[in-house]
Amino acid sequence: MAFAATDKVVLGSVAFAVFWVLAVFPAVPFLPIGRTAGSLLGAVLMVIFRILTPNQAFAAIDLSILGLLFGTMVVSVYLERADMFRYLGKLLSWKCQGTKDLLCRICFISAISSSLFTNDTSCIVLTEFVLRIARQNKVPLHPFLLALASSANIGSSATPIGNPQNLVIAIQSGISFGEFLVGVIPAMLVGVVLNALILLVMYWKVLSVEKDEVISEVDMNSHQFSPATMSHLTSLESQGLNPTADAIDQIKNRTSSREDAVPVQSMMEVEGDLANGGNRLLRKMCVYLVTVGMLAAFLVGLNMSWTAVTAALVLMVSYSLLVFFCGMFITVEGFNRTGIPSTFWNLMEPHARINHVSGIAVLALVVLVLSNVSSNVPTVLLLGARVAASAAAISPIAEKKAWLILAWVSTVAGNLSLLGSAANLIVCEQARRAQFGGYTLTFWRHLKFGVPSTLIVTAVGLALVRG
């Protein structure tokens, strides 16, 4: 696709720039309207500037992705209400043999929970558990916060429901849940191990201070998490974008009372029963059974979007994240029509073919840079179809592998810097504003670990991704 007319290129770029600025910096002084409104503004500008017709704008919205995103987020919220993450938190301190053991546990628990319940959800819920354990046992905080955030990003790469960009890739590529899992999980498992080893090597002396002591268990009942908090923070993140400290404060204030927390309606009155007590054990079992049924349906190859929606309807409805994604789909489609992404890819495509090691390296570098500049979901939306088309000219297996490489690199890219993933920002802000003594994880401290970890984990994982 060649460049569009000059006026459309300029106006389309302006609309996309407005979307990008408000997505990455939602509290900009000249237009402090937030991410969701910013996404809709970008979409409206694409129509006003006549980059897209209204019908083309509506057609750009991918209902399959919205359905899958909606369903998996709803199920995650109800799993939190059923204490799933409280049990995961207890595993962090149960018979823990020291700081190094604790760090490894955080890495693996964070990775596994993120692959099933999304990376940001895991970070929102587990950060305070990690802080409590570290504070109670007087161990340094930053290695454990880095372990939580980075492992959550790596772990989320393994499944289509681990993060929003994987949802996009799974729907657009037609790769089933099982194929996706088999293709990426070797890279994910090795990546988590490598990430843990890098942390141990970098912070061995710091972690050796308490090496002979057993980590004492933390009272996990001392803090209650609200699914409203989790869902609203998730909606701020959406595709690897970053919630602000003020937004987190507002959410916590709004969710101090469950009745005022979020306009959630249960089609089977599950929330009312959970909130009022009732047979709590039975309600928990229902949530777990629904989740197991959803995952089983994914694995046997049923339509992922309708499976997730069905599971969600058994539990509850509603999210503003869907509005954000609608605006983003329209804005990205309008930017595509300017011809800029196509022209860029035409320049890179001869050097980024995945039938050569050098081509894979170039492709990975392009995705790594774009994911940190424009965030991972827009990168996938802009380049996904083009990367797949280039690989399809080689073979169907190459096409599938290209999609999985895109999923792996765009996800692990979030570990490069503190701003690369909302999971990082969530951990940072939760730690800084912890009610029992905050801690600031600085940009440079994260970068010192993030750069070597991202480059090593990405490179090794590329060799293990299977088409």
From TrEMBL:
The keyword Lyase does not apply. This is Citrate transporter-like domain-containing protein. It comes from the Eukaryota. GO terms for cellular component: plasma membrane. GO terms for biological process: transmembrane transport. Its main location: membrane. The keyword Transmembrane applies. Keywords: Cell membrane, Membrane, Transmembrane, Transmembrane helix, Transport. It is found in: Cell membrane. InterPro entries: Cit_transptr-like_dom (IPR004680). Signal peptide: none annotated. The chain crosses the membrane at residues 9-27, 59-79, 180-204, 286-306, 312-332, 353-373, 405-427, 447-465. It holds the Pfam family CitMHS. It comes from Rhododendron griersonianum. Residues 24-413 form the Citrate transporter-like domain. It is a multi-pass membrane protein.
